[in-house]
Design a protein that fits this description.
Blueprint lengths: L1 H22 L8 E7 L6 E10 L2 E4 L4 E4 L4 E4 L19 E14 L12 E3 L4 E3 L11 E3 L9 H4 L10 E5 L15 E4 L11 E3 L1 H10 L7 E6 H11 L8 H4 L3
Parallel strand pairs: 1-13, 5-6, 6-7, 11-12
Antiparallel strand pairs: 1-2, 2-3, 2-4, 6-10, 6-13, 8-9, 10-11
Amino acid sequence: MRAIKRGLAFAGLAACFFGQTFAAEIDSGVKQLIVSVAPGWDSPTGRLQLFERASGGWKASGQPIAVLYGKSGLAWGRGVLGTDEPGRHKEEHDGRAPAGVFKIGTIYTYDSALPEGSSFTFHTVNAGDAWVDDVHSPDYNRHVSIDPSNPPPWFEKEKMRHNDFAYRWLVEIRHNSDPPVPGAGSAIFFHIRRGPARMTAGCTTMAEGDLVNMIRWLRAEKHPDYALLPRSEYEAKWKAWGLPSPVEAAALLSDR
């Protein structure tokens, strides 16, 4: 009986180990994939390309574009894939963009509608909308709406409506969202860059035209994900994670 129990215990540990190492990959229901690759962990810049799932693999939708990350580079985030990887992990105010694979959430905008041709879940930001980055709050890393005529003390710092051109469109990257872990990083979005060399606190930014094109391309029914990795990690994980192959992503991975 003891031998059987030891055998079952070993089998359980082995299943857990091998499951964590080899089983994780992008869900087959994901038909759109945003892929961004940085030269290294400490790189604040990189490139991004859009992909659609095709028969037997992925097909690029357009050419790679230039993007900016956190001023300190990347660190592993909390999302679909990458959460349990060894190494540095994203923390609040560390100046790093979260690496891994993440779901795309809501698009927040100052406008009453998305750009013409878009079809995605969105929310028009009003005077009472905020995104909470207080690690002690039960609403940490969540969108909340309050009565703007009687705002709480924290609201001015965390409100979303600043009439700032860079935040006209905020495409939610669902890092540390399901559920949020206090201190693991908050308010991660795609948004308009402030300049070609203005890095971020952790978001991924790009030229306005490129962001608009991405918003028009996104389709909720295709369950888009975002994959962000340093090049070395991409080359090591693309097959196990179900990412575009080096051939399919040749333009993105080129040394241009």
